[in-house]
Design a protein that fits this description.
This protein has one domain: Murine Class I Major Histocompatibility Complex, H2-DB, Chain A, domain 1. Helices cover 38% and strands 30% of the residues. It is built from five helices and eight strands, in the order ββββαββββαααα. An eight-stranded antiparallel sheet has the order 4-3-2-1-5-6-7-8, with helices on one face. The radius of gyration is 18 Å and the shape is globular. About 5% of the residues have low confidence.
């Protein structure tokens, strides 16, 4: 279908981690203006659009694989200490939108077992609980995420500046096409999301015992 002139230029990433019996299963994708750019299946992340040269992408691909292996090992370790006899599904939805009038909007939302869990307020770099009621798990995760620059100020800068800046460079509304690679944006989103998921391992610890 033709793109509406009023529709925003959008970059989004969806990522899901399923933890069951100490094992982690990863899946997700990234898209630029509705076109699939990256795909995550298990421990493999694939560059669908040729946004990076093969040698550079091979290094990035290995970085992602190494992180996922590390995350998986941590979950196995925590599962032995505090077994959880049910499945946990942690999801991330993040990205930014650039509108034809020049305004922009960034977002980061997390779900736990398909229920709204946390969201990141970009303007003041704070995490907000979305989990219904006063749940200790959500409170624990919120406190942990607020402790580190990588999950507050750095994430704010990435979503509010880097993400939108690259969309502006690629926007057809400017009348220009930039040759700048999407790679810093795409990889920043992927690795940033995984870093937050790593922090959220505490969710499983908290769920399996006392926070």
């Amino acid at each position: 279908c033709p793109t509406s002139l009023a529709a925003p230029l959008t970059f989004t990433m969806l990522q899901r981690t399923r933890v069951s019996n100490g094992s982690s299963v990863f899946s997700g994708n990234a898209s630029l203006d509705g076109q699939l750019s990256h795909l995550l299946e298990g421990f493999n992340v694939t560059q669908v659009l040729p946004l990076e040269p093969p040698d550079a992408w091979a290094r990035r691909q290995q970085d992602v694989t190494n992180y996922l292996l590390y995350f998986s090992q941590l979950v196995k370790l925590f599962s032995k200490e505090r077994p959880i006899n049910y499945t946990q599904i942690l999801g991330c939805h993040l990205g930014c939108r650039l509108f034809p009038n020049g305004t922009a909007h960034s977002f980061y939302e997390m779900t736990l077992n398909r229920t709204a869990f946390l969201s990141f307020h970009v303007l003041n770099a704070t995490w907000e609980r979305r989990w219904p009621g006063r749940d200790a798990v959500a409170a624990f995760a919120e406190r942990e995420l607020m402790k580190y620059p990588s999950t507050t100020r750095d994430l704010q800068h990435f979503l509010n500046t880097t993400c939108i800046g690259i969309l502006r460079a690629q926007s057809a509304w400017t009348g220009k096409q930039s040759s700048r690679s999407h790679a810093p944006l795409v990889l920043g989103l992927i690795l940033g999301s995984f870093a937050l998921l790593g922090m959220a391992v505490g969710i499983f610890l908290c769920t399996g015992g006392s926070c």
